[in-house]
Specification:
It is a single chain. With 234 residues, the chain is α/β, with parallel strands linked by helices. The chain has a single domain, classed as Rossmann fold, CATH 3.40.50. The protein is 27% helix and 29% strand. It contains 8 helices and 11 strands. The strands form 2 sheets. A 7-stranded mixed sheet has the order 3-2-1-8-9-11-10. Strand 1, helix 4 and strand 2 form a beta-alpha-beta unit. Pfam families: Methyltransf_21. It comes from Roseovarius azorensis. One of its GO terms (biological process) is methylation.
Length: 234
């Protein structure tokens, strides 16, 4: 029934409904692009089947899209996605700080994680640096990470991309979901040291059992932007 309703309601109508929800991803993208955002290439890490990129294209239609996904489960869907969107390509690999082989927990198609604990089942996948799968001059970049605690190694392999980034979107957490994971306030400090500040949030999630805050997406832009020169509310 849900899929039937989705097909019956035009995508533009659904988008407008989501934009009215201030904490929805689409509302955040509308606010940010409305202030002016120049993006040459979107790097979607943890792309799954391309659904996030498909939505982002409504707001950033002229960019190239590079979808990075480690789980082979999504390869057929990504092939279809890239056929349907000629300005996109995908890399079937994990993102990391060096080209190597990594253990990857692929049990959950939408919740995989690089370098899981030794007690978790894992497959071996290729890993790439974001700096190696993009070229100088392809920016400004939008870098999106949905990588379940493995963000720091990915950012370490994206120094050039970050130097040319106009927007970085990172899923962050209120609990340390992996030994190497940063909590959301630690990620804010980490990115601040690299010249980025938070301009928006979206999709906060609360843990069902006890109602504790679990995760949210943070939107980072360079501290050189004019928004960071204003220190007043109005």
């Amino acid at each position: 029934m849900k899929s039937l309703l989705k097909r019956a309601v035009p995508a533009s109508w659904r988008r407008q409904v989501h934009e009215t929800k201030r904490t929805h991803m689409l509302a955040a993208l509308k606010r940010i692009t409305g202030r002016g955002l120049n993006v040459g290439t979107v790097i979607d890490v943890g792309a799954s089947d391309g659904r996030w990129s498909a939505q982002a294209m409504d707001y950033i239609p002229d960019a190239q899209y590079v979808l990075v996904e480690a789980n082979p489960h999504h390869e057929p869907a990504l092939e279809v996605f890239c056929r349907n969107h000629p300005r996109s390509r995908f890399v079937l690999a994990a993102a990391s700080n060096k080209a190597q082989k990594l253990r990857f927990n692929a049990d959950d198609p939408f919740g995989g994680k690089a370098e899981p604990g030794e007690d978790q089942a894992a497959i071996e996948v290729d890993a790439v640096r974001l700096d190696d799968i993009t070229q100088p001059g392809e920016g400004p970049f939008l870098v999106k990470l949905d990588t379940h605690g493995y963000e720091v190694p990915i950012l370490e392999g994206a120094g050039r991309c970050l130097s040319e980034a106009a927007l970085v979107i990172i899923e962050t957490y209120g609990f340390r979901i992996a030994p190497e994971a940063l909590l959301f306030h630690e990620m804010v400090a980490y990115m601040r040291e690299r010249g980025f500040g938070v301009v928006d949030i979206s999709d906060p999630l609360w843990r069902p059992g006890d109602g504790c805050f679990w995760q949210m997406d943070l939107y980072f832009q360079p501290l050189t932007r004019p928004e960071f020169q204003r220190m007043t509310y109005f």
